[in-house]
Design goal:
The structure is a homodimer.
Chain A: H1 7-23, E1 29-35, E2 38-41, E3 47-50, H2 63-76, E4 88-90, H3 91-104, E5 108-111, H4 114-127, E6 137-141, H5 146-149, H6 152-156, E7 161-164, H7 169-178, E8 182-187, H8 198-208, E9 211-215, H9 229-234, E10 243-248, E11 258-261, H10 268-276, H11 279-282, H12 288-301, H13 304-323, E12 335-341, H14 343-355, E13 358-359, E14 361-363, E15 373-378, H15 385-402
Parallel strand pairs in A: 3-13, 6-7, 6-8, 8-9, 9-10
Antiparallel strand pairs in A: 1-2, 2-3, 5-11, 10-11, 12-15, 14-15
Helix pairs in contact in A: 2-12, 3-12, 7-8, 13-15, 14-15
């Protein structure tokens, strides 16, 4: 018991984080959307811009996607077929999956969410169904997203589980030498900053046949040619048959649900195995609204305009990096962690920023170590130069003002737990 | 290893079922919706009515729900807030959950699917967070839906797991006598027919404090006053604080996603625990289309018209039971299993029915025992009298014709596995 999780302990450790943030009015904001990352609070009408939105290209409020979603619902006259997708499915589902498969040059399936994509594939991978019927040693990166972690117990009923230090290629290579089949489970872009050493991992794949399993929730759309993400970009756009990528279609992509890239186009056997032996059979699909948005978003991904959005995102990242120094500066990814230090100073800072029109997520123990609190920011293509400059100015002003105000009153004994309270 | 699952074995055992059904053209039908359970195939234009649709009240094509879905997307101008619901959420999410909470007199949360609702609560229940911090012995009904089964390994990392025979109240009572905390995990209405002995379970709850966890995917909307389902109906509409119900909002309810009924309205502590310590934190929400449909469906549930739909469903069940004898006859539930016997006769029957305009799901080993194949039917309020009578007539005619044609060629050695290949 408690080999992979200890929910009660996690709840007790992280309770303060939630309570404090909640009391500070930084959780549970109920809003109307104003477009371009702006929101209006339902209670007091206060307007603010979200500096921690994962819609990296601003597609969540792109009216073409929004209209495509509404049109699909109306033209199909239903949200779903009311029977398993294995039996009867709307053409929109086939069309959306075909469009994804062709655009990313993979065999793609859609799921209700990225977490469901993980549930639908990780235990199957562990069972050996994708590795010549031999269960691989399942090696998890310590920082792999919580939805992957949460499946360790299920995977452990099918295979041996090993957790290694973050990006520890050396430990992974050692395991490849010791075991005939090894699968590595990691994020492409980590929601807490940084990325997987994809090149080195591909070297291990080539040398040892290592199976690679990536969560690209933050990489797809954001990075790579036509939004193919970090991993496919490193692969030159050609996924190998020993690689599975799962992705969110609800973040950079701007639609709904998740996706599984099972391997090269035409990986029919693997597709059948995935559809017949897990949650894909009984879980809900993306509804027709989401499917409409997916089709519209794929079409947009192939355009020059899309390349322009990626460029604007990179320009905004550069602009921000020039104004605010972080550990992630110049890594080309859109996630930034601004360390403040004391927990209460961080919460006060976030409160003051919100008053002045900027929502920035405060993050502290147990997500990161005690006394290392800060703000997690996510840059977007549809932030204006003025928004970024004003925010950076305010941040400096308020940090100077509050920098030494913290007492860390609720930061008492104990160490950070690896599991993480809120990772995405 | 393989204490709770053996995916590779399941895949090998169920492969024939999938292959045969697939080859027979009874899987993977790609269609356009025509309303009222009718579909048109995309390839050959063939039109048929779905006799195995879980939209028991016909709400999936109710134009008021469809329009509400499209309107919500357009008026919000987005499918999602692009940040955790814990931080910023649209008023539509609050409104939908408030409407559900008030209508069912429970504390309701929405999730991306019913399976996600299970993932978001079962491991937490096992951890003891809902039972005074003492991990309960988790007792699963052998026939509990596959999405509950699939969480056994995760629950086993938090608590002791016991699986008992279907509806075995005696065994459950014995466990209640032996252990201070026990939780029972079951379906309200079983997707394979039949229901939980709710009255007797409530007696155990009263006597021993038994925690009850029900999957009401097929019960909500279909049964009970204003669609409150089997369990809440038995409870006189008042959920106890030792009961959790999960439900689909995508079946009888006619919208998208799933719901968790955490306990009585105002169960704030449990709500916070659920939101902070599991998939609710990072999983996607129902998109705004689904939220619009949920609000419209709740409103419909409170009307006389809705009571009329429930009555029409019961009338159709009675009509069917008068024409076709099944083991489930007169149980008041909408799911019927018509046993044919031989596997190939069943598939041929389903093929002929489809040619004649009726889709009926063939079900055979390993979902049920070898040589006991048949059709799983689901009755709907929006089936016409003529449809039911024509179908029953055809069924009789074709059964007489094909009854002894089967050779059971692909039904070879081995016994039925409890896990089931496709249960919902």
């Amino acid at each position: 018991m408690h080999t992979y999780m200890n929910i009660k302990k996690l709840a007790s450790i992280s309770g303060d984080f939630w309570d404090v943030t909640d009391r500070a009015g930084l959780f549970g904001l109920v809003v109307a959307g104003l477009g371009e990352g702006w929101h209006r609070r339902a209670d007091d009408g206060h307007e603010f811009v979200n500096m921690s939105s994962y819609s990296y290209l601003g597609l969540d409020t792109d009216l073409r996607l929004v209209r495509a979603a509404a049109d699909e619902v109306l033209s199909e006259g239903s949200l779903n077929t009311s029977t398993s997708r294995m039996r009867i499915r709307f053409a929109a589902l086939d069309d959306a999956e075909r469009a994804l498969s062709e655009h990313f040059d993979v065999e793609a399936l859609t799921t209700a969410s990225c977490a469901v994509a993980a549930w639908a594939t990780l235990p199957l991978l562990a069972s050996g169904l994708f590795t010549e019927d031999v269960a691989p040693v399942m090696v998890f990166d310590k920082n792999a997203h919580f939805c992957l972690n949460a499946l360790k117990a299920a995977a452990a009923d099918e295979a041996q589980i090993v957790t290694i230090a973050h990006n520890d290629v050396e430990a992974l290579e050692q395991l490849c030498k010791e075991h005939p089949k090894v699968a590595y489970v990691a994020d492409g872009v980590y929601s807490t900053g940084g990325q997987a050493p994809v090149k080195e991992l591909l070297r291990l794949q080539e040398k040892y046949g290592l199976f690679l399993y990536f969560d690209e929730a933050h990489g797809i759309s954001t990075l790579g040619r036509q939004g193919r993400g970090l991993v496919l970009e490193e692969l030159g756009g050609r996924i190998t048959d020993r690689t599975i990528i799962i992705a969110s279609l609800n973040k950079g992509f701007g639609a709904s649900g998740g996706a599984i890239f099972l391997g090269p186009q035409g990986s029919d056997e693997r597709k059948n195995l995935a559809l017949r032996n897990g949650p894909l059979m009984w879980s809900q699909r993306v509804n027709t609204a989401g499917l409409g948005a997916i089709k519209a978003s794929v079409a947009l991904h192939a355009t020059e305009e899309f390349a322009g959005l990626q460029k604007r995102l990179q320009d905004n990242i550069d602009l921000f990096d020039g104004l605010v120094q972080t550990e992630q500066s110049r890594d080309g990814l859109p996630i930034r962690f601004v360390e403040i230090g004391k927990e209460d100073a961080t919460v006060q800072l976030a409160q003051r920023l919100l008053e002045r029109g900027f929502y920035a997520s405060p993050i502290f123990f147990p997500i990161i170590g005690r006394g290392r609190a800060g703000l997690r920011l996510m840059l977007r293509a549809n932030m204006t130069r003025t928004e970024i400059e004003t925010f950076a100015g305010l941040l400096k002003e308020l940090r100077d003002e509050l920098g030494s105000a913290g007492t860390g009153a609720w930061a008492q004994a104990g160490n950070a737990v690896g599991a993480g309270a809120e990772r995405r």
